[in-house]
Amino acid sequence: MTKTVQQTTLHWEAALTVARGALLKGQELGIRVAVAVMDRGGNLLAFARDPGAPFHSAKIAEDKATTSAGFGLPTKQWWPVLEGMNSPGLLAGIAAVPRMVVFGGGVPVYVGQDCIAGVGVSGGSEEEDEICARAGLAAAGLTADPG
């Protein structure tokens, strides 16, 4: 018997709405940010950057989105988990994983129980970046939590 898997994906229009919503929240907060929306495979769905955002924020936003999409967790949840580990090897290993981010600013995108994408914002503080990412989700009627 052959089994098939059906995956839900984020449409490009929704991804652009998320990016725009996050940028607008950054303007409201008085910060200049870069926003990336990535699918579960780490493919870029949408990207936008305020012209005044720091140069490195573009890549950091992509990495935050990739980490959140890949694990279905906000990036800020990683450091408390790692802090509690008594394994230097694990810490060194996680630090060596390409595109892995363990600080705030990335959130997953859920539809029901399925994580279908991730949003990463960079340019403000960790808290500001996450506020912007969640505002982008809200603008598209999406959530960072399974449910």
From TrEMBL:
Any Pfam family: HbpS-like
Sequence intervals crossing the membrane: none
SUPFAM superfamilies: GlcG-like
The protein, known as: Cobalamin adenosyltransferase
Organism expressing this protein natively: Immundisolibacter cernigliae
Lineage per the UniProt record: Bacteria, Pseudomonadati, Pseudomonadota, Gammaproteobacteria, Immundisolibacterales
